[in-house]
Design a protein that fits this description.
This protein is mostly helical. Helices cover about 85% and strands about 0% of the residues.
C-alpha cells in the first residue's frame, strides 16, 4: 500500500512538467496526453510489480517490519528504474527534437 502511495505521489509530482515537455516534443496536446498517460501507467505499475514479486520468507522470529521494508525496497527500486528509463528516453527525444529544430533554421 505504501508503494502505491509513493508511486501515485511521484506521478502527481511529474505529471504537469512532463506533459508540458511532451506537448513541445509531440507537437500537439493529443499525442502528449497519450504519452503522459502511458508514463503514468508505467510509473504506477512497475513499482507494484516489483513489490508483488518480492515475497519475503516469514520466519518465526522475524519482525513483520523487516518483511515490509524488503517489499518497500523492491517497490522503490522499480519506481526509480522506471523514472530513470523515462528520463533517458525523454532526454534522447529532446536532443533529437533540438537537432531537427536547428536544421530548420
Amino acid at each position: 500500500m505504501v508503494t502505491l502511495a509513493i508511486g501515485l505521489g511521484v506521478i502527481a509530482y511529474l505529471r504537469h512538467p512532463l506533459e508540458r515537455v511532451l506537448v513541445e516534443l509531440c507537437g500537439n496536446q493529443e499525442r502528449a496526453g497519450f504519452w503522459a498517460a502511458f508514463s503514468a501507467i508505467a510509473l504506477g505499475l512497475t513499482p507494484l510489480i516489483f513489490a508483488i514479486a518480492c515475497r519475503p520468507a516469514p520466519g518465526p522470529g522475524s519482525p513483520a517490519i523487516f518483511e515490509f521494508a524488503e517489499q518497500l525496497k523492491w517497490g522503490l527500486i522499480g519506481l526509480m528504474s522506471t523514472v530513470l528509463v523515462l528520463g533517458w528516453v525523454m532526454a534522447r527525444s529532446i536532443v533529437r527534437w533540438e537537432s531537427r529544430a536547428a536544421k530548420k533554421l
